[in-house]
Amino acid sequence: MPRLRTLRTLLPYIFAVTAALLAVFILTHNYPSLFLSSHLSQALLILTNRLLPGCFTFHSPVSPPSTAEVNMAHQFRTVAYFVNWAIYGRKHRPQDLPAEKLTHVLYAFANVRPESGEVYLTDTWADTDIHWEGDSWNDVGTNLYGCLKQLNLLKRRNRQLKVLLSVGGWTYSSNFKQPASTPQGRANFANSCVELIKNLGFDGIDVDWEYPQSQAEAADFVALLYAVREAMDAYSRTLPTPYHFELTVACPAGPQNFMKLDIPGMDRVLDFWNLMAYDFAGSWDSVAGHQANLYPSASNPRATPFSAVAAVDYYLSRGVAPSKIVVGMPLYGRAFQGTEGLGHPYSGVGEGTWENGVHDYKKLPLPGATEYFDREARASYCYEPRTRTLVSYDTVDMARTKAWWIREERRLGGAMWWESSADKEGRESLIGNVVDVLGGPGVLDRRPNLIEYPYTKYDNLRAGFPNN
Questions:
Q1: Where is the signal peptide (predicted)?
Q2: Residues in Cβ contact with 101 at an 8 Å cutoff, skipping those fewer than 6 apart
């Protein structure tokens, strides 16, 4: 009889737990994207804990770490590309950057003169000349304005914020091959990088060569990076207080490109790697696919021609430390029109925000579209049934999933975004959500930037912008 009474006492709890688990199963099966929402996850866990008070302790996978965990964890990098053309149609200025949530801004792009190797700015009006509020037209001497003045002001207010000059990019990458192949070309490249650092207030150089295509070019890339490293170190030794200028690359996530790199040779001189874990699918493909998935899809392999995990695993296998891999994420989506869905043919890409088939994240999801989460590939997208348009992009829940993957599953170095103008503000900011899951600004790389440039040709930078 006592056993029967005990069983009768437990029956309500058993039914309650069964009902709660069934609810979780139904929700996650039919609405997988909701499962990754911190709000719903916490609500389900709280409900279950109330049904069985004190029996279980639950931890949300997207909750910030405790103080002890923060102190033990390595510091993360949060890196955003700022493009100098963003000040025009996009109306996006350096002043608009979420500086307190970033450790690095990569200022894009400088170009390379193929005949000499000289690195030079591509839009001096945007870079050094345009005047904004607070900029006087009556300053005496030679003074720095434009985006680079504003970035230097951000550095003074946010001492963790490092600004690197990004050289190359897809459009200019054909200009690397010739100068990288000769000692003089490499020296000109490195010395002109240092001149730009010295005069414009950068904290280092990001090299974006897309992509070396032979063993000889891979060796030239290593030699080019060594030349830049040595030139920056030589300049550092001339400063009143030596400073470590950082050297990074934007690196490929496709095996047809990363397998051609001398990764161990590059790694010896790089501070970290910015993995371009996006553009896995697009208008160049025959079927609609995920453009920034973490994992391959075994059930729908045509939808995942590449994956972030395969790229990360390859770089790790070549000796790169996990803490040096910064995972790139898109602040845009790639569209496929006239398609039945992932892995199916499409008829076109349609118009975009600034170019065909590419939509700023802040314009997504499309009107009338529903957002979905592909649990197998760990990727998100929206689908609009009237025009049969699918757009592959990171939703808030997907960005939080990636941050958790970086922080807990793979223990990587941080996150990078292309590019800053396309993010939303407030609670739907992808940058803000990733920083939240990583643990907040307190877990970010706090190594200080450089604000003393005694040899610059610009009087206001040398004096520390006394009028601002």
A1: none
A2: 78, 431, 432, 435, 441, 444
